[in-house]
Amino acid sequence: MATELDQAHSAGIVTKVDTAEVPSAAWGWSGESRRTFRAAGWVVVVILLAMTIGNHKGKVEDIYLVGFAALLAFTLVRDSFLQRKPR
Fold first, then answer.
1. Which of 62, 44, 45 is closest to 53 using CA atoms?
2. Closest Cα partner for 47 from 75, 74, 61, 66?
3. Going residue by residue through the chain (87 aa), what tens digit of pLDDT does each one get?
4. How far, in Å, CA of 46 to CA of 73, rounded?
5. CB 48, CB 70: distance < 8 Å
6. Among candidates 29, 37, 25, 27, which has minimal Cα distance to 80?
7. Could you say which DSSP state residue 26 is in?
8. Fewer Cβ in 10 A, N or C end of the chain?
9. How many H-runs (helices) and E-runs (strands) does the chain carry?
10. Which region, left, alpha or beta, applies to residue 35 given φ > 0 means left and ψ of -120 to 50 means alpha?
């Protein structure tokens, strides 16, 4: 027994952004700043590496901190290379 679904009818896709929900859309910008996110990422890398300096005796914490910092740095460098490459 097969059932058929009724076709959905819509008035179309609304592309206008409501300025009450996104106030910055009133002056033509409604997105994220890649430059800000990259700068914040590098700040986090520096903070993670600075956290290796401390009074802990074990080195397991250092391995995790350096590993996460390296992973984040790799992601940031990869993103900057992919952004320059034409699609």
1. 62
2. 66
3. 556 665 555 555 555 666 677 766 666 665 667 888 999 999 999 999 999 998 888 889 999 999 999 999 999 999 988 888 776
4. 10
5. no
6. 37
7. G
8. N
9. 2, 0
10. alpha
Q: Cα 72 from chain centroid?
A: 11
SS3 breakdown of the chain: % helix, strand, coil, rounded to 5? 55, 0, 45
Q: Are 19 and 25 in contact (CB under 8 A)?
A: yes
d(CA 77, CA 38): 9
Please state, in angstroms and rounded to a whole number, the distance separating the CA atoms of residues 49 and 67. Answer: 10
Buried b (16+ CB within 10 A) or exposed e, 59-79: eeeeeebeeebeeebeebeee
Contact 72, 48 (CB under 8 A): yes
Contacts of 44 (CB under 8 A, 6+ apart): 72
